[in-house]
Design brief:
The complex is a heterodimer of chains A (375) and B (449). With 375 residues, chain A is of the alpha/beta class. Chain A is 36% helix and 18% strand. In chain A, the strands form four sheets. A seven-stranded mixed sheet of chain A has the order 5-13-11-12-10-8-9, sandwiched between helices. Chain A has a two-stranded antiparallel ribbon with strand order 1-2. Chain A has a two-stranded antiparallel ribbon with strand order 3-4. In chain A, helix 1 packs across helix 2 (60-73). The longest helix of chain A is centred in the N-terminal third of the chain and has 20 residues, at 14-33. Chain A is globular, with a radius of gyration of 25 Å. With 449 residues, chain B is an all-alpha fold. Chain B folds into two domains: 6-177, no CATH class; 182-268 and 341-448, no CATH class. The chains are: A alpha/beta (375), B mainly alpha (449).
Chain lengths: 375, 449
């Protein structure tokens, strides 16, 4: 009896394995070292580390600067971050990335309640408006609306938001969103972004009609456009590979319009409110109003009402095109991008019909910039 | 420089390993010496002066010692004092200041210096060399470069294992050139250690760090799991470092003594300390416990020796009374275990898994003392502040799979062996690079010792 012939496995020689491994590492390192540095990372929306200048080897700073530079410029970094993020999510530790994956959507963790700050801001809104009618739109967060799908301990953390909502409800100027908003969170919010969808903004538009005194139009009366492949902020922040993508849906009235945008860099103008060229960038939400600006003015001569002043964060960007159907002029102020644009003179001009505050809960509670006065 | 930094992994390690492998024999030791100095001085070259001082004192002093005569003993004492002086200043000056101030109410003002990485390790290594030469267990090394390599060999320079000169002397003389197989084995072990550190210890450390000493918020569940996480973190961090050190050593052709042997599987505390940080335990046994008389004396004296050794072990780990308390805690337990448990027939009848569990719980309690959060942690663990809030419960749930995985590989007697690390090692390296690119590196826990 003879033994069956053993199958011969072709083994990689040790020398080849060692040399290949070390050379790959070295090539990655050298490629990082010789990268130009200082570039902007679109998908993370941050400046990458600059090449360390004037090395001071007598202290740890240089060591950390070199490490930071390599970390930001290692080739294939986006893939590496995606691998790490996927590993974190798969092992249940997504919260480290400040995003939670819940039933098909990536949501932000609960907004910590700073009730004193919130009450102070509401008083300031009141004071600023004076005799002018005003309303506040702060939608309930995506996480809050889908908390019943979370494990109990995660859902319980949203108690912090409950305190904030209770304070907002007490204020007579807070606009209550229609029931449809709370009942259909998956259509009101993007899966990959913290912003509401056109459907969400439209619910606010319906609710505001009663408060501000205009007759809301059906969505079919607007020109609706769709843009595929939207990857929002929460997806970017999570670092996860883009397995999920949303469709951006925009609506604007079909009549002549002028948009004037003021930023720290100066003033620019356009004759439209939707910018399809921005839909394909990493900040796809900039498709509305070409992103965020210190102040912007929307003028539509054929609209029936006078001026609406809006103090806002990016949540208003999807809403303003709808509102522009009713106001000849909308002046929108984003104090976070203008640095002190919160102006009483602006808010109480003779032609102002109403003041509208549109903020996400996070901005409203935690962003002190939004109530800074004009310098 | 840190093993788990991109600077090391992508630049230093490939250059040094390939360079060393290709270097002609005569150039190998100077190359390794230079690389080790670069490794230690990277970011803070001033600390090279300390390493240089330690080298100069130990190398020069032992050469003088060979001239013999009555001066040998005085030279020995002088060398030990000169080697220990920087350690005392950098590590214990602040501790001394605070202790004297609180005891006598004196106001002593000076800024405590920053602790240089690895000073405890290379100082102890230098002292072991001096004592081995003094006891004539080893011949003094005449080449400053070779001695420099022994003391500064970068794989084990900043966090051990503490290698005795007698373990490395023959290898240093041989100027080893590693075979490709040795390099492959060494790099595989390095990757395993890197995985332990980056994928397990750092993740557990973040969980423990999230509590930030606020155990009342963490509640009983959070505090228990937090301490469990800290116990695993410290093990995977340090044993991971040791694996990396031994792996790099092997890739350079040096075989160094093991430092860990699955310590959490120990069925007694005595066994635990035979498996945990073996090189430090050996050092204290050889150079403190046995010279004090070891076991060959009256029971009360033997117990006193144990107390002295463990108080010193505690102090070695850190300049703080909680470290001394931690050392004495183990001293008392080891004395009690030796007298009342070990080699008793009733103890042998207890199933091994119960003995392992009890040993682990006692070790875990020790880590509670070690952490410096003793009383607040104990209070929370006994339920004084409830089970913990929603955030703590979520964090516990999120880390439960990781803790379970760590428990399995720490306690399971025999895990199925990965068929070939040849393929698993690159995967581990990729995951570690991903974690480092996404999160950055965290320093090793044992760097502070």
């Amino acid at each position: 009896m003879t033994d069956a012939p053993k199958s011969k496995k072709r083994k990689i020689p040790d020398s080849a394995a060692v040399i290949a491994g070390l050379v790959i590492l070295l090539v990655l390192g050298l490629a990082a070292v010789f990268s130009p540095g200082g570039t902007f990372s679109d998908w993370e929306r941050r400046e990458l580390a600059d090449r360390p200048a004037d090395p001071d080897l007598t202290e740890w700073k240089t060591d950390k600067a070199v490490e930071g530079f390599l970390k930001d410029h290692v080739p294939g970094r986006q893939i590496l971050v995606a691998v790490d993020s996927a590993a974190q999510f798969l092992t249940g530790r997504g919260s480290r990335l400040n995003t939670w994956y819940v039933g098909g959507a990536i949501v932000e963790p609960p907004v910590p309640a700073d009730t004193r700050s919130l009450e102070t801001k509401l008083r300031r809104f009141e004071k600023l408006a004076g005799d002018v009618p005003w309303a506040l739109v702060t939608p309930k967060t995506h996480g809050w609306l889908i908390r019943d799908r979370m494990i109990p301990s995660m859902a319980a953390q949203y108690d912090t938001e409950a305190e904030a909502y209770a304070i907002l409800e007490k204020s007579g100027n807070t606009v209550s969103m229609p029931e449809a908003f709370d009942a259909n969170p998956d259509t009101m919010y993007y899966r990959t972004d913290h912003h509401w969808t056109l459907q969400g903004a439209y619910q606010a538009y319906l609710a505001l009609g009663e408060r501000l005194g205009y007759e809301p139009l059906p969505l079919e009366d607007f020109r609706v456009t769709e843009y595929e492949g939207f990857m929002g902020t929460t997806l970017s922040r999570s670092g996860l590979p883009p397995f999920w993508k949303d469709t951006l849906v925009c609506a604007e009235p079909d009549s002549p319009v002028t948009l004037t945008m003021n930023d720290r860099d100066g003033e620019t103008a356009a004759d439209r409110l939707i910018f399809p060229e921005d839909a394909a960038t990493y900040d796809g939400y900039a498709v509305y109003l070409h992103g965020n600006h210190g102040t912007l003015t929307i003028e539509r001569p054929d609209a029936p009402e006078g001026t609406l002043v809006v103090f806002k964060d990016s949540f208003a960007n999807c809403l303003l095109p709808l509102l522009s159907r009713h106001y000849r002029r909308i002046i929108a102020v984003d104090a976070r991008y203008g640095g002190g644009f919160f102006s009483e003179a602006l808010a109480r001009s003779d032609d102002t019909k109403a003041i509208l505050y549109v903020y996400s809960l996070d901005s409203l509670v935690n962003d002190s910039e939004i109530t800074k006065r004009a310098k | 420089m840190v093993f788990s930094s991109l600077t090391f992994l992508l630049l230093f390690m490939p250059c040094v390993l390939l360079g060393y492998r290709l270097m002609p024999e005569k150039a190998r030791m100077p190359f390794l010496f230079g690389a080790s100095l670069l490794f230690y001085g990277w970011g803070s070259p001033a600390w090279l002066l300390l390493l240089g001082w330690c080298m100069l004192v130990s190398w020069g002093g032992t050469l003088l010692m060979t001239r013999g005569g009555k001066r040998r003993k005085w030279l020995l004492i002088l060398m030990i004092v000169l080697d220990l002086a920087p350690l005392f200043w950098f590590k214990y000056a602040g501790f001394f200041r605070d202790t004297v101030s609180s005891l006598f109410g004196w106001e002593i003002r000076f800024a405590a210096p920053i602790l240089p990485a690895g000073i405890s390790f290379f100082t102890f290594q230098a002292i072991s060399y001096i004592l081995d030469v003094w006891r004539r267990d080893a011949e003094p090394q005449r080449s400053p470069v070779v001695f420099g390599v022994y003391l500064s060999l970068f794989p084990q320079l900043v966090a051990g294992p503490i290698v005795r000169y007698t373990d490395l002397a023959a290898q240093l003389r041989a100027h080893p050139r590693p075979s490709w197989e040795q390099m492959r084995r060494g790099l595989c072990r390095f990757c395993i250690g890197l995985g332990k550190k980056v994928l397990l210890a750092d993740a557990l450390g973040r969980f423990w760090g999230q509590m930030n000493g606020d155990f009342a918020a963490a509640g009983a569940l959070g505090s228990w799991l937090g301490l469990l996480a800290f116990s695993f973190q410290i093990y995977f961090d340090f044993s991971g470092y040791s694996d990396m050190a031994l792996g790099l050593g092997e890739a350079l052709g040096f075989i160094m003594p093991e430092n860990f042997d699955h310590p959490y599987r120990a069925a007694s505390l005595t066994e635990f300390w035979r498996r945990w940080h073996m090189s430090l335990t050996t050092w204290f046994r050889e150079y403190v416990y046995i010279p004090l008389g070891g076991n060959r004396c009256k029971p009360w004296r033997r117990d006193l020796n144990v107390l002295i050794v463990w108080a010193l072990t505690g102090l070695w780990h850190g300049a703080g009374w909680h470290f001394v308390l931690w050392g004495l805690y183990f001293a008392v337990l080891l004395i009690l275990e030796k007298r009342f448990v070990l080699e008793k027939s009733w103890a042998a009848r207890i199933p091994a898994w119960i003995r392992q569990g009890v040993s682990f719980l006692l070790v875990m309690a020790g880590w509670g003392l070690f952490s410096g959060f003793g009383t607040s942690l104990l209070g929370a663990m006994t339920g004084q502040s409830g089970w913990g809030g929603a955030a703590a419960q979520t964090a516990c749930l999120a880390h439960a799979p990781l803790l379970l995985f760590c428990a399995v590989i720490s306690f399971t007697p025999r895990l199925p062996k990965v068929r070939s690390w040849r393929f698993a090692a690159p995967v581990l390296m990729l995951l570690c690079l991903a974690a480092l690119a996404a999160q950055g590196y965290a320093p090793f826990v044992y760097f502070q010792f």
